[in-house]
Amino acid sequence: MERLYRAQHQRRLSFMPWLYFTLAEKHRSWATAWQARVQARLTAIETIEIGEGCFIAPEAALFAEPFRGITVGPGSSIAALVFVHGPVKLGERVSLNAGVRMDGGSAGIEIGDDTRIASGAALYAFDHGTAPDQLMRLQPVRSRGIRVGRDVWIGANASVTDGVHIKDHAVVAMGAVVTRDVPEYAIVGGVPAVVIGDRRRQEREQP
Description:
This protein has helices at about 1-15, 25-45, 200-205, and strands at about 50, 55, 60-65, 70, 75-80, 85, 90, 95, 100-105, 110, 115, 120-125, 125-130, 140, 145-150, 155, 160, 165, 170, 175-180, 185-190, 195-200. With about 210 residues, it is of the alpha/beta class. Strand 21 (about 185-190) and strand 22 form a beta hairpin. The longest helix has 21 residues, at about 25-45. It starts with a helix and ends with a helix.
């Protein structure tokens, strides 16, 4: 029974990794050892650097060929069903929730410290041409990169396109499609995303 419970608890942590950082003492030793095995296996076969105190679900798909590395900063978490293809650099205490999809193209994706990316969000740092005289599968691909600042929240099922810079403290609403840069503290939403608020003003207006 204990074995079954532990397996279920591992699955729970994989889909809700924030629980890993608040585990009761009786679970801490086996969970830490389990994570050490998961992370050692990843670093042995992929070009991945993992900082101290991270959580990476074994169900995540992380692919980092030479020169397309992935860096996971200290205290960060990557949940189940996440897909990450480098080059990608996560800062400290970044969280990628279940089902996040990120491809760094050739220019890469950088995520700042303390940023939260919710379930189902997609960040793709490349784009295809659309010239009418050529098949789509033969179109040239460009990559300018994506930069996301510190203390940013990207909502569930939002999308961020190549070349975008989301600046510090911004919020991207659920389902938004971000095609242009986002200012500091801005709240953006819609398709394509536009500024719909400001975190600082919102705080002042709260009772």
